[in-house]
Amino acid sequence: MKRNKGLLVVAVVLCMALLVAALPVLSACSSESTEGKTLKVGMSTPSTGKAAEKGAPMGHANLDAIQYINDELGGAAGYQIEVVWLDNAYDASKVVTNVKKFMDDGCLLFTTASSAMMSATMEIANRAEFPGIASFNAPILHRPPQHIYGQMPDYGDDWVAFTKYYMENIWEGSGKPRMALHLLNNSTGYGARDAAQAIADDLGVEIISIDEHKADTTSEMVSLTRIKAENPDVLYISSTPAPTAVIMKNAVDLGLFPGVTIGLGHAGITKALVDIAGADIVEGVYGVFPTVNWGDNVPGMAKMTEYVRNLHPKDEGNMDYITSWAQSLIVAEVLRLAVENAGYDVLAKGDVESWRAVETQGIQKLKNYDVGGLHGPVTYVPGDNRLAKSVRVFQIQDGNINPVTDWIDADVIKYEQYDGFGK
Question: What does the pLDDT read at residue 34?
Fold first, then answer.
């Protein structure tokens, strides 16, 4: 009996020794399982061309954040993220070519910075079931919901948030305030138009005029002279920084501003606007933006600031950089979820089966994902392809873009139920 017990003890000791000896081998096998394997994504930004003042820092932020994710966080679910990055120069034909290449290269999803570039390619992406995420979002991209997602609230949400703020905090007249719209002639402007046409009456605002401008406009004196003659109480501009700066300078020259209240959509109210127009020109202008500001006390600020100072110091202070840094964090979380829920082998194919897995097992599994507090929590809700759903109203004060509200939740607006949507 004692002899058998002794043999049992020896056997146990030998087994333990063999297990300990095998641990490095097992660990190496585990490491080798992801070695050389990547998760490929496509990213397209307007880093040159008419919107380069926005696109260049956004492209930097996308890639800087992916470097951080790969180098410091070990990638997504242990797999390095491989980025196929392409400049679209804010050109519709180029972004379509970009996205076709992303699909051909086996990318699992793609991102754009601008709503205009996403609107140019969403038809082929939706038809192929190739999921895309746009940083700057417009209703036309996701109403009705298909395979394109907005990282944050859209330009219609901006207009609603600003208009409610204006009615509650600025307007002191009787009757309905008279609002003029000055809109970039693509989805950046049309998103605000869609919201105004749908619910201006509900909010108690009269839309007196809708004017459009191009991204490379050099003067809007004619349109602003016409607007001034209409005697507006408020002017809402939904555009990018360079044309917004032109409009602001013209409005000051005409004596329209200061005088009327001016509000901006989130494509326009950035450090680039202040730099291009001049702080004195835009002093007192309001705007809506869906991220925190630089220097805000949120968990993700320190690491982002470390990277921007090391890699692209000129971008510090630009809120567009925050937007795209957060977009890359979301992409990594989507990939992590997709690997865990569907498995790497499904994703490795880089085909429609992979895209469906990324969408249903990645994007649509997002729930209260925190981008370090850089913007609102990220959650997919069936029937609503906006992933974050809150904005703040800001005002330019002494050259700084300062928040004047807390976070405002943007309710779903089913634009497809309104006549004229997208036309």
Answer: 79
